[in-house]
What we know:
By secondary structure, the protein is of the alpha+beta class. 39% of the residues lie in helices and 32% in strands.
Amino acid sequence: MILLLEMTESMDKPIARPRWWRSRRTLLAGCAGLALAALVLTVTMAGFGARSSVRTPAANLTIDTVRHDVFQDFVTLRAKVVPRDIVYLDALEGGQVEQVFVQPGDLVASGQPLLRFRNTALELEVLDREGRLVESITQLQTYEKQLEDTRLANEKAVARIQYDIVRLQRSAERRDALLAKGYVSRDQHEAVHDELAYNRGLLPLQLTANREQETLRRRQTPQIQAELASLRESLVITRAKLESLVLRAPIAGRLTDMDLKVGEIRDRGQRLGQITPNTGFKLQADIDQYYLERVRVGQQGQVEIAGRSSAFRVVRVDPQVKNSTFQIEMAFDQAPPSGLLPGQALEGRLTLGGDRKGLVLAAGPFLERSGGDWVMVLNDGGRRAERRRVRLGRRNAEQVEVLSGLTAGERVLTSDYTSFEKVDQVILTK
């Protein structure tokens, strides 16, 4: 009994946990706390990212109210006055400027000499080619004359044979009578008949040869004439090369953009200047590419000239886009106003369609950044503007048509959105 009691007391002795067990619990608790903090931080950051904002003084912003109004479908433009027609002057052959007869700004007549080039190499080339062309023309003319001489010789040969036949036939008839009386010998009688038979047999051969020769001549003569005409034309063109060393005005008008000095060397095809004939003026304007699909030939517009409006119509649309713009040409409906100068700038507007009632908003710099896909709309208190998706339609320099996303009375930021592209709300400060 004593032994059993001692064993029981030793078995009920408490056992202490090691230190590493307490450290593990602390580590697990710390990791859980860090994970919870990271989760809270992530949610917080996500919340801030979804509703990012920027603070901007209200005085730096432009605000407009959406309203019911008439949308005027036009585009403003800055037109430039240009001559209706321009004739360019290019060097046909080129060379060294030997003499200048006129100066920029002079009025010139059609055919008037403007300047003269000196080109020794061209002169030698023209002389050589001219000599070879003349030689070829001479050879063709000689061959043509030979064909004609052959034709005449063949006709003479037939005439000669026919004459001999008639002469010998008469002689044979006389000798037949003399032979019967014994006045001539048989040899003399037969000689005349033999020669007559020879000429009678020769005549068809000569006629056949003449027909063949005539067929050949008639076939070759048009070819020779065509070749001669081509050579003569080439000769004229070759000689004109020397004449092209003198630049002449192709049309009457005012000479511009020609600044040449004696001794300068200009190459073939180089632009030398231009002539502006007195045919009036037209207008040119560059328009934003946004309107490319809406501008058409025949559309009407007006420009302001000395305080008066002048109507015009679009006559050409160049669809090529350069620097985000395309170019149009316009003609005045009536005679151009007096006093216009080339290069003069005029303000005007081009009508694109009919006016229509609807929701409108003032146009502004915000369109360039948002593309018309979203805007910043002020809340009721006017201290915060929030991003909103919208759909905008036609626009002009003053208005933009609202199709959806906004209602009448709402206020929208219409100033530049450069600082708002990556935020969802703008907080207005004093």
